[in-house]
Amino acid sequence: MFLAFYTLIVFVATTLGASAGIGGGIIIKPAFDLLNQDELNIISFLSANAVFFMALYSSLKRLRGKAEKFDKPILLIIALSSIMGGFVGNEVFYYLFDYIDSNNLKSIQSIALCVIVVFLITYFTCYKKFKSLHLKSKLMMFIIGFLLGFVSSFLSIGGGPLNVALYTLLFGFSLKLSVAYSIATIFFAQGTQLINILLTQDISTYPLSYLLAIVPTAIAGGIVGQCIYKRLNDRAISIILSATMLVVLCMNVSNLIMSMD
Question: pTM for this structure?
């Protein structure tokens, strides 16, 4: 029964993720937490798989398509920094998972997500009023990529909206180009997280059979999301992001209240 709920959540989340650069995990993680059926490490594992395979499909589609042309040096910086940030974020998550109560860790994640989401709602509602800094520093790009990779892995959310907001605000990319770089960030960070789990954790303790439903659904969501993405302009992407963030904020507040009971 709950696998059906997981699958539906994954489809909706990855469809939005591929269409607006959300990544899906920022919806999947709090939605799975709200169901309260599995341990936090299992939820993080399932969310990471869904987001990774959605991002894999979306990245390959964009690289083969003609919609955006990646700047290869920038893409390389994003790849390296996201991999490093994803590794550190995963290490910090499992360190805390081993040494503090699961509800306390969930509270930390929920509080962090609430802060991020409030910022994102403000930004995407009024993003035209924010002046981009148009930073050109490769070092700053690396630092931001590292931080986004860390957040993506530690919170198991992909981090799409935060990626889009910071790439737009700091580097002056259009929303659509920021979506493309966001998906790349998610792909490298979540891929690093999954490899790290495979190498350091006993995966027999995870419900691997769930992946038979979740992974194809995530890819299907990526396909549908790509079709929607082609029909969106920057304003439409902004509306989708703002509305989604309101829902995510409500879920995270609910999770925070539940974890404190």
Answer: 0.77
